[in-house]
Design a protein that fits this description.
heterodimer, A: alpha/beta, two-stranded antiparallel ribbon, B: 355 residues, mainly alpha, four-stranded mixed β-sheet, 17 helices, globular
């Protein structure tokens, strides 16, 4: 069974403690600690020892995607020194300008495919140069981003076919036309069900930005995406 | 090496008009993306794409070419989009390019909703059919291609994933997408019928120019559509994968294959096809005639002659007579490409082409 958990950023923005607390009632086995703004990184890393992570089977850390204070090289150095060595580090390709800074992470690095706003990293062909430069890096497949780029899921399937053996974790949510991560809906669930059986077993990190009252419903929706039965395209239209 | 350059080497011919038109199209597109930008300065919202059609997309830019563009909306509609379209219109004119024709098919906003959902039926207008099929067969993004590619994939999904045959659902296989082929055939015949309609409505104005285009560039567009569809089963231009996955994945692979064919110019596909056929006579018939056609289209005097030619004087007009003659070479080359006994597409043409 693939483990499921939330991104703390989706549940509580920069308040990772609250994010962790909010998902703790649901017996989830995975979590992604989120430091999307660079100023959030050092406080998060300083707090790791005080967080209750004992019941989690999978923990990843989302590196900053918005850089205002630290340099890219600083961020890489801080993560390398302070993040536990068994935690995958999720990184947006548009943050990378200095490949040398990220090479020491080897297969801990998880490069994520991007949404439609970014001019790079959205498709397999756009991601290939990053994996050439970082040949040991793993892949975080963001299903919401892939579906926003192509609702037919052809681009997503191409990502799976090209980088399937690198997939370390999956991000799941609806990404709307404003490129915001929101709750899954019926159309997105149907799209994900069409490709989910081609995914390797891996942790599913929920990125849907939802109120606490919707957590249980969103977990149910994500579970409904997993291990969908084989169906014809026409059936997928009506199921 | 491009298929065109490969065929030029093979035949030992220059095809100067085709090469010049291709290079001019690429240079024009490059200018539109850099020094003569027609995208508004502050850029376009995320779900809008600026798409060009016609000779620019076909890589056949000649002296009389205009920029057929649409502002393709694949998101919510807002009133401000009208201003963006107006800005693009102004920028096209400021940069010295001719505006699209008066039909309104181009030079305006197009919505993905109509393109994806209104295929066939009474709501599928002539304009919608034209925009949809040309997006597939003759389009190029001026800005980021993400919107164009997304809409294209959704249109293809309608044709391929959501209209499977009974036998395909039971046993998926690489197959001619019949729904798509039917729409491409319909579009080709619609262009031919519209030629007659415009001749009637516009009292013969520009009929000869349209007639010439119908004999060459419009027909070539249809040929591209035929190759795209037939090769989904024949696998000549691009080999088919040896194993067939489940229906859904196969449909996705067919969509991606169609996108790759869509992104090649019609002439590139034809050059690739004649190379595979291996018959240099057919290649010469097709490409030398097309090269001559483009040289005529690039000659302003000839264009003006054609634009003012009266129908009852056509049989005495040396230019039009010559165009008719070379169009027969082009036609004969196409017949051999698709119907010659050794043509890899002849059986499929029999199976799917007419009945």
């Amino acid at each position: 069974m693939d483990v499921i958990g939330f991104s703390t950023g989706a549940l509580a923005y920069g308040d990772f403690r609250r994010g962790l607390a909010l998902q703790s009632s649901y017996s989830l086995k995975a979590i992604e600690l989120s430091a999307l703004r660079d100023v959030e990184l050092t406080p998060l890393l300083a707090s790791i020892g005080a967080l209750d992570l004992a019941n989690l089977e999978y923990i990843s850390l989302h590196a900053p995607s918005r850089i205002s204070v630290l340099s890219e090289r600083d961020i890489a150095a801080i993560l390398l020194q302070n993040a536990p060595s068994n935690w995958p580090i999720v990184l947006h390709p548009d943050v990378i300008s200095d490949f040398h800074a990220w090479r020491p992470f080897r297969d801990r690095l998880c490069i994520e495919n991007m949404d439609q706003r970014k001019p790079i990293g959205r498709t397999a062909s756009e991601l290939k140069p990053f994996f050439i430069q970082l040949p040991e890096a793993m892949f975080c497949l963001d299903l919401g981003h892939a579906r926003q780029v192509d609702p037919t899921m052809s681009v997503c399937y191409d990502l799976i076919e090209t980088f399937g053996d690198r997939i370390r974790q999956v991000h799941v949510s609806e990404v709307n036309h404003m490129s915001r991560h929101v709750a899954l809906n019926a159309a997105t669930i149907a799209s994900i069900r069409r490709i989910s059986r081609h995914l390797p077993s891996c942790p599913w990190i929920i990125e849907s930005v939802i109120p606490p009252s919707e957590i249980a419903n969103e977990i149910r929706r994500v579970k409904s995406c997993l291990h969908a039965p084989l169906c014809s395209p026409m059936m997928s239209l009506v199921d | 090496m491009s298929a065109l350059d490969d065929v030029r080497n093979w035949l030992g011919v220059e095809l100067p008009a085709i090469v010049a038109a291709r290079d001019a199209a690429r240079q024009t597109l490059d200018r539109l993306r850099t020094t003569q930008r027609i995208e508004p300065n502050d850029g376009l919202p995320d779900n809008l794409g600026l798409v060009a059609y016609g000779s620019l997309a076909r890589e056949e830019w000649t002296a009389g070419s205009d920029i057929d563009w649409t502002l393709l909306n694949d998101g919510s509609a807002t009133a401000s989009h009208f201003r963006l379209a107006h800005s693009i219109r102004e920028l096209v004119e400021q940069n010295g390019y001719s505006s699209p024709g008066a039909t309104g098919t181009f030079g305006d906003i197009a919505s993905s909703h109509e393109l994806v959902h209104r295929i066939g039926g009474i709501d599928d207008t002539n304009q919608n059919l034209t925009r949809r099929v040309l997006l597939l067969l003759e389009s190029v993004s001026i800005n980021d291609s993400i919107v164009r590619d997304r809409v294209l994939r959704q249109i293809l999904e309608r044709y391929i994933s959501f209209d499977p045959s009974v036998s395909w659902v039971a046993k998926p296989r690489w197959q001619v997408p019949r729904f798509l082929l039917n729409d491409i055939v319909r579009f080709w015949r619609t262009m031919a019928v519209d030629y007659a309609a415009k001749k009637w409505q516009q009292s013969g104005g520009k009929w000869a120019l349209r007639n010439s285009k119908l004999r060459f560039s419009r027909k070539l567009l249809f040929v591209k559509g035929l190759l795209l569809c037939l090769d989904s089963e024949a696998g000549i231009l691009e080999p088919l994968p040896s194993s067939v996955p489940d229906a859904q994945i196969l449909a996705n692979q067919m969509i991606e294959r169609c996108i790759r064919y869509s992104n090649r110019s019609a002439l590139e596909l034809v050059c690739d096809s004649v190379r595979r056929l291996g018959n240099s006579d057919v290649a010469s018939q097709l490409l030398l005639s097309y090269d001559q056609f483009l040289s005529f289209m690039n000659n302003e005097d000839i264009r003006k002659d054609l634009e003012s030619l009266r129908f009852d004087e056509a049989h005495q007009n040396s230019t039009f007579t010559k165009i008719r003659r070379i169009s027969m070479d082009f036609q004969r080359g196409l017949e051999l490409l698709f119907f010659a006994p050794n043509s890899p597409w002849s059986k499929l043409m029999m199976d799917y082409g007419v009945f």
